[in-house]
Structure to design on (332 residues):
């Protein structure tokens, strides 16, 4: 795959973009392709991928950091505060670390950066007239707060037998399968919640706060209105009805919280010695932040393709998206 960067500008819209039109990397393609599915599993779960790193981090946090379920049998300030502090530390380390590396240290310059601009300053559009401070505020207040609230409530439900739980020894096949399925469930949930947030009333009063981030950065991922946080994080309620383990819950928390910082980095990949070592943002979602009424989901689920909201990065898709946006927002 070739890369396009504006060392010699090839696009007025983008500093970098992958080969276009965007291809279909979803495992839910028809007819089924067993070889592609095997490559997808290998790439995501049998290599050093972002999901494997999140799973390993979840294991370490479950063993050594988060309170165990015995303490969660009753609501108490100690273990709740411990959970909040760990989540706060995770967000600061992941989002703050990515921001420091890419935007302060500029460790990669603008290589593989989609938008040529830096984060905005001096604009009253933003809380505190500063994009990064705005994103920090919303991510670390209602973002971490509500992420912790969902986690605490789920831990309490598990500890008291109100939510079904499993162990690896009891059901190793489902234990591993659930880990693989959680990101797919999150993608399914995200698409439909995201479509709801683009209903004009909710977009105007709720989702527009997140969409101020046209040029996204790590702190943009969890920067949302509190109502959007409630809807977005309700993905965690799957643990209330489907048998899982606290390790699955922690992995899901990382995927929904710090994981959002990774996917909103503004860069496609982390380069180490000029080689792509870790997938970060996708042009697919960057197109959504630029053109709004397209690519509501992510590349793993086929909903945008099935329901006619897929933007493949071409000018024809841009014109179709702008026409759809005009129709949706007439009279608003």
């Amino acid at each position: 795959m070739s890369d396009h960067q504006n060392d010699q500008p090839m696009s007025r819209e983008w500093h970098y973009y992958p080969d276009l039109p965007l291809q279909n990397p979803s495992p839910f393609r028809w007819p089924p392709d067993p070889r592609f599915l095997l490559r997808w599993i290998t790439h995501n779960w049998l290599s050093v991928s972002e999901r494997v790193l999140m799973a390993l981090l979840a294991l370490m946090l479950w063993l050594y950091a988060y309170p165990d379920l015995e303490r969660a049998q009753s609501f108490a300030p100690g273990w709740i505060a411990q959970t909040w502090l760990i989540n706060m530390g995770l967000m600061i380390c992941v989002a703050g670390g990515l921001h420091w590396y890419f935007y302060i240290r500029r460790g990669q310059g603008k290589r593989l950066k989609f938008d040529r601009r830096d984060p905005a300053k001096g604009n009253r559009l933003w809380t505190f007239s500063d994009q990064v401070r705005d994103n920090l505020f919303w991510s670390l207040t209602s973002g971490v707060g509500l992420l912790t609230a969902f986690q605490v409530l789920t831990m309490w439900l598990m500890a008291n037998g109100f939510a079904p739980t499993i162990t690896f020894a009891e059901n190793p096949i489902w234990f591993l399968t659930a880990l693989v399925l959680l990101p797919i469930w999150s993608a399914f949930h995200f698409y439909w919640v995201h479509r709801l947030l683009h209903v004009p009333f909710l977009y105007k009063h709720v989702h527009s706060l997140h969409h101020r981030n046209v040029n996204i950065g790590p702190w943009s991922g969890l920067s949302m209105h509190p109502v959007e946080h409630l809807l977005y994080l309700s993905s965690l309620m799957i643990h209330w009805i489907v048998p899982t383990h606290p390790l699955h819950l922690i992995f899901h928390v990382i995927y929904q919280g710090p994981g959002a910082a990774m996917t909103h980095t503004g860069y496609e990949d982390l380069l180490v010695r000029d080689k792509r070592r870790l997938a970060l943002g996708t042009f697919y979602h960057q197109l959504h932040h630029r053109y709004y009424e397209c690519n509501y989901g992510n590349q793993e689920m086929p909903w945008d393709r099935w329901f006619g909201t897929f933007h493949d990065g071409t000018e024809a898709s841009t014109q179709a998206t702008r026409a759809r946006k005009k129709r949706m927002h007439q009279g608003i």
